[in-house]
Amino acid sequence: MIARKINELIKNMDFVAMATCDNDGRPNVAPKFFLKAEDGHIYIVDYVIGRTFQNLKVNPKASISIVDERNLTGYQVNGRVELLIEGAEYDRAVLDFLEKEISLSSRRIVEGVKKGERHNNFEVAFPTKVIIFKVSIDEAVEIGPGGELRKEGYGGTQK
Questions:
Q1: Best CA proximity match to 6, nearest among 70, 61, 64
Q2: CATH code assigned at 108
Q3: What average pLDDT values come out for the chain (159 residues) when binned by 10 residues?
Q4: Which residues span the domain enclosing 139?
């Protein structure tokens, strides 16, 4: 199942590429902070709150792209996006975000010290106001190293 492979790969990532489009067909792709994959959804944190957010307000569809460099396999998740701005689910996601933010900062500091690097921005300093994008996995695509494509619709059906 492609969605299962994506869940295994993405859980070790901090950032993913997210593509959206406005009603006039103007595309936008931007790096976004990956939060978690859970129950057929991928949760993304938007701390810039710019064009991606504006696009999703008028066209709630998005595509997320990730690459497994070890196997030279690409993955794409297409789905509808729910904007979480407030409420219990939003509050839980923000707590998860804060926990992951601390983990990422700690990891970057330790790696920097081990390498003897001098850097002013080892810690992650995201704004306190964020929006959570809850992406429903409607379609998962696997792109093999030879260009072969495999698609699965929601529920694992082959396309």
A1: 64
A2: 2.30.110.10
A3: 88 92 95 92 90 96 95 95 96 87 64 66 64 96 94 66
A4: 2-158
CA distance 129 to 48: 9
| β-strand partners of 84 | 132
CA of residue 41 relative to chain centroid, distance? 10
User: What are the start-end ranges of the E strands in 12-87?
Assistant: 15-21, 27-38, 41-46, 61-68, 73-84
Is-contact 65 75, C-beta < 8 A? yes
Instruction: Take residue 26 and report the two structure tokens written for it.
Output: 């103007």
- List all residues 6 or more positions away from 81 whose beta carbon is below 8 Å from its beta carbon: 56, 60, 61, 62, 133, 134, 135, 136
The whole-angstrom separation of Cα 19 and Cα 29 is 4
Total domain count, the chain: 1
Instruction: Give the Å distances, CA to CA, from 97 to 6, 46, 79, 87, 126.
Output: 20, 11, 22, 15, 10
What b/e sequence results for 61-93 when a residue is b if at least 16 CB atoms lie within 10 Å of its CB, and e otherwise? Answer: bbbbebebeeeebbbbbbbebeebeeeeebeeb
